[in-house]
Amino acid sequence: MMHSHMNHANFAALEIAVGIIAAVALCLYLSAMLISNRKYSKWKASRYFWWVLGIIFAASALSGPLAELSHDNFIAHMVGHLLLGMLAPLLIVFSRPMMLLMRTLPVQTAKRVSHLLNSRYVKFITNPTAAAILNIGGLYLLYMTDLFTLMHTSLWLYALVHLHVFLAGYLFTISIIYTDITTHRYSFIYRGIVLVLALGFHKVLSKLIYAHPPGSILKTEAETGAMLMYYGGDIIDLMLIIILCYQWYRSTAPKPGKARPI
Amino acid sequence: MHEKKTPDIRSNIISGIFFGIGLMALIDEIIFHQILQWHHFYDHSTPFIGILSDGLLNAFALFAVVLGLFMFADLNRRERRHASTWVASFFIGLGGFQLFDGIVNHKLLQIHQVRYGVEILPYDLAWNITGALLLSIGIVLMIRARKQRQAG
To answer: Per the UniProt record, which residue ranges are transmembrane (chain A) (predicted)?
Structure first.
């Protein structure tokens, strides 16, 4: 138990809201797929699979048994954060929601969205450095200040922090991996360096949590949670690294590739 | 048939060193942290700079092992591989990481020791001599690879 005597907010409303949002997200993607299939070539069903997995993982951090456990158990909390901030964003990026959205929207609206994607603001936040600071910096604020304790006392703060964890994780993933629509592109080397730095500071943070647990978490729970953060982060970042390097490998293929005998 | 392509020496060196660094970091993690559990995840006397250095180095090593392999695949597909240069670079990467870890991380920054509850000197010596040996093998192989390139 991490803080049995702590005053918890009532999270039932949030759990219901998250459940509804997830269900709507699953239906919306499916109907967008059907609309897109009428106008364009068939949208790959595997992308829907990534979407469903991503949404379920993200939602499970905030709703259901894992979410309930995570209010009192730091290990469950950390599993939730790995799912919400790292794995779900990666899966969702591979379902290419922006591309599907652009195919589905009426031309005028699609133009407006495209205008937004090309704006200076989006250019700024999708720069890998800005995205990494929003992502990892946010985690430092959460675990190294009183925010962690405060968050459990206020439903709104709790929701806001978790929304940030998810959005910043998503933003960071799209700033590194160019699979969905990407308007502002940066070089492979730059993205590689930022990814290494982000992973490095993620490792540093997990050791700081191990040494100085936030709030009134039990030492043993903090240690297991911190190691889970360290190695879980390694596994998911290894996936990011492999995907990034594979994309580099494909993009640098010698031009007359098909004509060459193996 | 196609003409013989000149090997891309710079990429061979980077690829070999990266893969060597990454592989040694993996060996360190899997054997000494996980299997033997000699290394500790966190040593309560570690200064912040040590945690920072260790975190960044290990993050880089994870990236390096993957990029090293993809670069090797790229050299193969372009037929610009130079095997002896690559192997020499690989040993330099292995030894370089081991030596850096043994001297800077273990000793200067005191991140963690090779093993706890034992007389540490033999372990430190074994660790660093292994590193120096691997590095020397790499350097000797590199000199031979260079001669081979100049002769060929």
So the answer is: 12-36, 48-67, 73-94, 121-143, 155-176, 188-210, 230-249
Sequence-distant contacts of A129-132: CB under 8 A, at least 24 apart? A129/A194, A130/A175, A131/A168, A131/A171, A131/A172, A131/A174, A131/A175, A131/A176, A132/A172, A132/A175, A132/A194, A132/A197, A132/A198
Domain ranges of chain B: 27-151
Contact predicate A197/B56, CB 8 Å: yes
Residues 225-254 of A with CB under 8 A from B: 226-227, 230, 234, 237-238, 241-242, 245-246, 248-249, 252-254
**B76-87 as b/e, with b when 16 or more CB fall inside 10 Å?**
ebbeebbebbbb
Q: Are the beta carbons of A203 and B73 separated by less than 8 Å?
A: no
Nearest to B62 among A223, A234, A252 (CB): A234
The pLDDT of residue A28 is 97
pTM score: 0.91
